[in-house]
C-alpha cells in the first residue's frame, strides 16, 4: 500500500528518501574510519569480483561539533572521519518498506527526480522472515559455542562467521539486483549471490556442526588458542586476527576435512602466529588486522 495515498497500485521504493533518512537516524560514528583505513578499503575492493567498490566519503561536516572520533578498524583518533557510503547504506537497519513504498502518481507528485526501485514481494518476505531464521540459526550456534571451542576453536569460529555471513547475504542489507543492472526479471529485488548459494552454505554449516558435535578429542588448535588468550594476541576489536583470516574466506560453502589451522593455504598464517607465540611476550597493544585478498572470480 502506498505510504502517502494508500493506493494499492504497483509500488516503488524511494531510495533517495531512504538514504536521506539513514543519514539522520543511523549513528555514523559507529561506521567512522580514519583516512588510512578508508583508503585501504578502497584498495581492497578495487578491481573485478567485488559486489561493490568502496568509496571514501568524508563525514566531517555531518558530524560538525562532535569531538574527535575513534576509527572503528584501527582505533586511531581522528578529527576528519570517513566512511564508505555504500557500506553504510547496505548495513543500515533503516529499511522500512512501508515508509518508502509509493505508487507511481505519488512518485511523480512528491518524489520527482528521486532514485527509485521497483518494490518486489520477495523484498518484503525477506524483511519479515530473515530475522526469524537469524534468531534460530545463530541461537543454535551460540548454545554450543563454549563446548565447541573446547573441541576445535578454529572450526567454531568458522561456523560463527559462516552463520552471520549467510544471514547477511540472504537479507535485504546485501546488494540487490535492480532494474538498472538486472538481466533476468526473476532476479529483480533479490541478493546478488550465485544460485543456491544460501542453501549450499547452510548445508555446509550443518555438516560442520554435526562433525564438531561428534568430536571426542580436542583439536591441536585448542592449545594454540590458549596461548593466543595468554599472550593477548587480539586486534583492536578483540578478535584473534590470524584465526579470523584463516576462516574469513569466500568459499564458506566448502566442507573442510580438517581444521583450518592445518590447511596448506593457511600455513603462512600459522607460522606467523607461532612466531608471535614463541616470543612469549604479552601484547600490550592490539595486533594489527590481517587482510587477505582473493580473486573472487575463482569462487
Plain-language structure description:
This protein is mainly α and 299 residues long. The chain folds into two domains: 11-118, no CATH class; 136-298, no CATH class. The protein contains twelve helices and seven strands. It has helices at 15-25, 35-44, 85-91, 97-100, 104-110, 121-143, 145-151, 153-170, 197-214, 221-230, 241-247, 267-279, and strands spanning 11-14, 57-58, 69-70, 77-78, 82-83, 101-103, 116-118. Strands 6-1-7 form a three-stranded antiparallel beta sheet. The two termini are 40 Å apart.
How are the secondary structure elements laid out?
Blueprint: E1 11-14, H1 15-25, H2 35-44, E2 57-58, E3 69-70, E4 77-78, E5 82-83, H3 85-91, H4 97-100, E6 101-103, H5 104-110, E7 116-118, H6 121-143, H7 145-151, H8 153-170, H9 197-214, H10 221-230, H11 241-247, H12 267-279
Antiparallel strand pairs: 1-6, 1-7, 2-5, 3-4
Helix pairs in contact: 6-8, 7-8, 8-9, 8-11, 11-12
Amino acid at each position: 500500500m502506498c505510504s502517502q495515498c494508500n493506493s494499492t497500485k504497483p509500488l516503488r521504493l524511494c531510495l533517495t528518501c531512504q538514504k536521506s533518512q539513514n543519514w539522520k537516524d543511523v549513528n555514523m560514528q559507529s561506521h567512522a574510519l580514519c583516512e588510512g583505513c578508508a583508503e585501504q578499503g578502497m584498495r581492497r575492493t578495487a578491481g573485478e569480483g567485488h559486489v561493490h567498490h568502496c568509496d571514501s566519503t568524508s563525514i566531517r561536516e555531518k558530524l560538525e561539533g562532535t569531538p574527535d572520533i575513534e576509527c572503528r578498524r584501527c582505533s586511531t583518533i581522528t578529527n576528519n572521519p570517513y566512511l564508505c557510503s555504500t557500506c553504510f547504506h547496505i548495513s543500515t537497519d533503516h529499511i522500512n518498506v512501508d515508509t518508502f513504498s509509493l505508487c507511481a502518481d505519488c512518485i511523480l507528485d512528491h518524489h520527482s527526480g528521486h532514485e527509485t526501485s521497483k518494490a518486489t514481494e520477495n523484498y518484503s518476505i525477506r524483511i519479515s522472515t530473515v530475522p526469524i531464521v537469524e534468531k534460530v540459526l545463530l541461537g543454535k550456534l551460540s548454545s554450543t559455542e563454549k563446548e565447541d571451542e573446547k573441541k576445535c576453536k578454529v572450526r567454531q569460529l568458522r561456523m560463527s562467521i559462516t552463520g552471520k555471513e549467510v544471514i547477511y547475504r540472504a537479507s535485504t542489507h546485501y546488494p540487490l539486483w535492480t532494474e538498472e543492472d538486472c538481466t533476468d526479471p526473476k532476479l529483480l529485488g533479490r541478493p546478488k549471490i550465485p544460485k543456491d548459494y544460501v542453501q549450499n552454505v547452510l548445508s555446509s554449516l550443518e555438516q560442520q556442526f554435526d562433525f564438531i558435535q561428534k568430536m571426542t578429542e580436542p583439536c591441536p588448535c585448542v592449545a594454540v588458542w590458549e596461548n593466543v588468550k595468554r599472550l593477548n594476541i587480539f586486534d583492536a576489536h578483540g578478535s584473534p586476527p590470524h584465526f579470523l583470516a584463516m576462516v574469513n574466506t569466500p568459499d564458506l560453502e566448502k566442507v573442510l576435512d580438517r581444521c583450518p589451522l592445518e590447511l596448506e593455504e593457511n600455513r603462512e598464517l600459522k607460522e606467523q602466529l607461532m612466531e608471535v607465540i614463541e616470543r612469549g611476550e604479552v601484547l600490550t597493544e592490539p595486533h594489527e588486522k590481517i587482510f587477505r585478498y582473493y580473486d573472487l572470480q575463482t569462487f
